[in-house]
Amino acid sequence: MGRITATELSWSVKGHRLLDNIEMTAHDGKIVGLLGPNGSGKTTLLRLLAGLRRPDTGTVRYDDTSLHDLKRRMLARRLAVVEQDVTAHNHVSVRQVVELGRTPFRGHFDALTEHDQRIIDAALERVDVTDKQHRSWHTLSGGEKQRTQLARALAQEPREILLDEPTNHLDIRHQLELLDLLSKLDVTCIVALHDLNLAARYCDHIVILDHGRVVDAGTPETVLTSDLIESVYGVNVLIDREPTTGVLRVTYLAATPSGTTARQAMQLDAQ
Ligand SMILES: Nc1ncnc2c1ncn2[C@@H]1O[C@H](COP(=O)(O)OP(=O)(O)OP(=O)(O)O)[C@@H](O)[C@H]1O
């Protein structure tokens, strides 16, 4: 398990600031949910945290080491990234995709060891794709591909996992199983999610992004308030607790008129 810290992170494209002064920490073994409307910057932030993009300003640290100082191979040995809608060569099998998770631990020409094969078997089993392991990747459904990508990440035996909307193709059972699995792993997770109820149930900490800024962060109880959800998403909600589990429950009532968020309405009033 490791800690991921972002400090004063900013990133712009052609003069447009897409991430602005982001501060966040994912503590050892915790699940951090990145929430926010379409285009708020979740994927961009995950890419910066993964070292796939370089910030204009600010630092990402894994434990106490700056991403900048971490050798690529060392990072690949500890960090797994599950991106949205990953493509793979059509003719690779599901098992070969999962085998890629062992790449950071092997030399170029080394065969997979028995130890590697056992890890791959376990990863396939954990996401329920063992029976599809010899199928071609391109024959899988969207949800099966997503689960296979998680198996690849698990085969890496990472200390940290970054996941970009890992549940968007999954049926309800597999959504719950995926988040259950993440919550049982000794791994630090940062996961972009759209489903506020899944976030309330599984995340230890939530970071809400809007227009590339962190607008709130904290436990689901402190962050998921009706005012904040209305202000950021432009949707009226009812917040209560599910009676059997006591977990926070968000019921969507209606979009606010013409999609104007409360904050935008306030800004218009002030002009
Ligand atoms: N390379 C780029 N060039 C120009 N604009 C970009 C680039 N990458 C991202 N953006 C813009 O930055 C904003 C944030 O995009 P991002 O994909 O991070 O949002 P998101 O919160 O993940 O959205 P979604 O929920 O729709 O997946 C969007 O408006 C997007 O169009």
From TrEMBL:
Provenance organism: Streptomyces synnematoformans
Transmembrane residue ranges: none
Annotated keywords: ATP-binding, Nucleotide-binding
GO MF terms, alphabetically ordered: ATP binding
InterPro entries hit by this protein: AAA+_ATPase, ABC_transporter-like_ATP-bd, P-loop_NTPase
Presence of the UniProt keyword DNA-binding in the record: no
Domain ABC transporter: 4-236
Name this polypeptide is given: ABC transporter ATP-binding protein
PANTHER family tied to this protein: ABC TRANSPORTER ATP-BINDING PROTEIN, HEMIN IMPORT ATP-BINDING PROTEIN HMUV
SMART domains given in the database record: AAA
One Pfam family in the UniProt entry: ABC_tran
